[in-house]
Prior knowledge:
Radius of gyration: 43 Å
CATH superfamily of the largest domain: Periplasmic binding protein-like II
Number of strands: 19
Number of helices: 16
Largest sheet: 10 strands, mixed
Shape: elongated
Structural class: alpha+beta
CATH topology of the largest domain: D-Maltodextrin-Binding Protein, domain 2
Strand content: 25-35%
Distance between the termini: 148 Å
Amino acid sequence: MSRTIKFVLLFGLILSLALSACGAPVPTETPIVEAPAATEAPAEAPSTDPILTISGAVDTELALSEADLRGMEVVQLNAEHPKKGPTDYEGVRLSEVLAKAGVQEGASALLFTASDGYESEVAYADVEACADCLVAFDGSDLTMVMPGLSSKAWAKMVVKIEVKADAPAAAEPPANPNIILATTTSTQDSGLLDVLVPMFQEQTGYTVQTVAVGSGEAMKMGEEGNADVLLVHAPASEVKFMDGGFGKDRMLVMHNDFILVGPAADPATVKGLAIKDAFKAIFEAGAPFITRGDDSGTHKKELALWKSAELDPAAEKPEWYIETGQGMGASMTVASEKAAYILTDRATYLANKDNYQLEILVEGDKSLLNVYHVITVNPEKWDAVNYDGAMAFSKFMTDPETQKVIGEFGVDKFGQPLFYPDADKTDADLGL
């Protein structure tokens, strides 16, 4: 064997041994991939179903859900339970819940009712003094947390809070309980006084003797000291009454409007005319017209309308101009019987229209506004006048609750109010 071949074989053997000494190649390490952490379930949203009702002597009765409660300021506090000792609670302050409902004056106690029928009553004065009283969340239930109060007040599973109030103390009977109200016939014939006078008497202890006459006659009674308070609708004459010192207080109460009514045949063809033109048409046609002729507010308005038309049938006394000397209701009865025209207030007409064969022919003119004031008769002129009673009636007529009754009177029957309340306005607001 040649020396070269031997060298090649030797080199191959050495290389083979070197490779064996290095050992098998180390396999590449597979990276470990951690499994993703399990995602936490989202917190359950508060329920929107009512879980607590607030009722009783409150401005607004409430039905609150958990979401409603948690929408208020949620607080955590540690309170001393009468039996359990110091305990952590989460909830909303009871004072905030009650403020949301609006507790009325005269509240005396809170009555808690649980879902199982259990009831617990707590004096309202104690609740007012308890800044840390809570409506606390207890799972799906509510617990009253009432620090400083007995364990009975710490009601569980509460679903209702009723605010209780003592019956108002009976009003002290007035020293002089009798008052005389002189008023226009429209307030009587419309039925409004049938509603308001009993309300006033019940609330105050006064007894009202109502004398329903025309506004002029009512003011004459006031001038003679034969009435304590007036409810009238003749603004120009009322100003003279006050300027003469016969009235002490004059307050705006309400308004409606005058309308011209007549037979459906409308012989003078006045339907849809302006009121001044309608009066001219009646005059020219010699159509029957009924006038009260009693110096009432309506009569005064009628005379003013004839004057605006530059006519004076009251002085000329034509046959077609018929004077009744009676109130509004009786005068409309005559107009219906004679198929005549007549000026009336809307309230009296609507309240009695089924009794007449009369239709509204002219309405809506600005000059037909009909405004009512209440006036106390001046006690400085007549010692016998019951001024306290007169003021009590005046304040009653302008009280917001009475004004609300006035504004709703007639709506259920006629689809519109018979009078519009004005105690929050001035004469200037109405164009007087």
